[in-house]
């Protein structure tokens, strides 16, 4: 079953049994936006630096969510930074669409209820563990020393950026996680793009936290 990096991140960010999010929306939504940008870099559609996102190839990837982002970036008259794009793309709507896709593909189920009989809540427990099991196997192998592919490097970098690693992989070696997150696994343009997306996601999380604390 083919899923995007953002969907893999969602699986890691929710508990298997109860479907509760392990991190808050201020952390998760920028990470998902970063995952979409990074995956377009993996597909060689975008190239990211600290200061700008450049379209290398505007042809569709075949995934509706990725192609919607690619179209928006290609249609922007001025070059914008990864942080600018993450702040534009992050939303509860993006998160909801990706979760709904996982439900439609049979990976998750959607359960609605109320807390204290009053406050509505939606949870996303797993229906099929095979997809997340494959993701965890890939990530665990890299954290144990295997050379990462670009997709797995994105996942590790983003989980590190939003403090999900210690919850999803509590026994992970911190030095190894940091090595992957900083792009030390490769020196090509894709690795640099992943590092730029990750840095921007982390900055977006910090900015949202500061705004919330000040309000």
Automatic annotation (TrEMBL):
<keyword id="KW-0472">Membrane</keyword>
<keyword id="KW-0446">Lipid-binding</keyword>
<dbReference type="GO" id="GO:0012505">
    <property type="term" value="C:endomembrane system"/>
</dbReference>
<dbReference type="InterPro" id="IPR008628">
    <property type="entry name" value="GPP34-like"/>
</dbReference>
<dbReference type="GO" id="GO:0006890">
    <property type="term" value="P:retrograde vesicle-mediated transport, Golgi to endoplasmic reticulum"/>
</dbReference>
<dbReference type="GO" id="GO:0007030">
    <property type="term" value="P:Golgi organization"/>
</dbReference>
<dbReference type="GO" id="GO:0070273">
    <property type="term" value="F:phosphatidylinositol-4-phosphate binding"/>
</dbReference>
<dbReference type="GO" id="GO:0043001">
    <property type="term" value="P:Golgi to plasma membrane protein transport"/>
</dbReference>
<dbReference type="Pfam" id="PF05719">
    <property type="entry name" value="GPP34"/>
</dbReference>
<dbReference type="GO" id="GO:0048194">
    <property type="term" value="P:Golgi vesicle budding"/>
</dbReference>
<dbReference type="InterPro" id="IPR038261">
    <property type="entry name" value="GPP34-like_sf"/>
</dbReference>
<protein>
    <submittedName>
        <fullName>Golgi phosphoprotein 3 (GPP34)</fullName>
    </submittedName>
</protein>
<dbReference type="GO" id="GO:0005829">
    <property type="term" value="C:cytosol"/>
</dbReference>
<keyword id="KW-0333">Golgi apparatus</keyword>
């Amino acid at each position: 079953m083919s899923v995007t990096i953002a969907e893999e991140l969602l699986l890691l960010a929710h508990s298997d049994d109860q479907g509760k999010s392990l991190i808050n929306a201020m952390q998760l939504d920028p990470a998902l936006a970063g995952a979409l940008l990074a995956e377009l870099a993996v597909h060689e559609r975008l190239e990211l630096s600290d200061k700008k996102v450049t379209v290398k190839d505007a042809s569709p990837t075949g995934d509706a969510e990725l192609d919607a982002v690619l179209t928006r970036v290609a249609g922007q008259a001025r070059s914008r930074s990864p942080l600018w794009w993450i702040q534009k793309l992050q939303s509860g709507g993006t998160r909801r669409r990706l979760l709904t896709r996982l439900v439609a593909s049979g990976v998750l189920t959607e359960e609605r209820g109320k807390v204290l009989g009053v406050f509505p809540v939606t949870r996303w427990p797993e229906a099929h563990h095979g997809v997340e099991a494959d993701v965890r196997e890939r990530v665990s192998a890299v954290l144990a020393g295997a050379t990462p592919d670009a997709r797995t490097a994105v996942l590790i970098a983003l989980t590190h950026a939003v403090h999900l690693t210690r919850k999803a992989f509590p026994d992970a070696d911190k030095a190894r996680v940091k090595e992957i997150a900083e792009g030390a696994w490769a020196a090509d343009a894709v690795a640099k793009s992943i590092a730029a997306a990750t840095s921007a996601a982390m900055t977006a999380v910090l900015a949202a936290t500061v705004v919330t604390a000040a309000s």
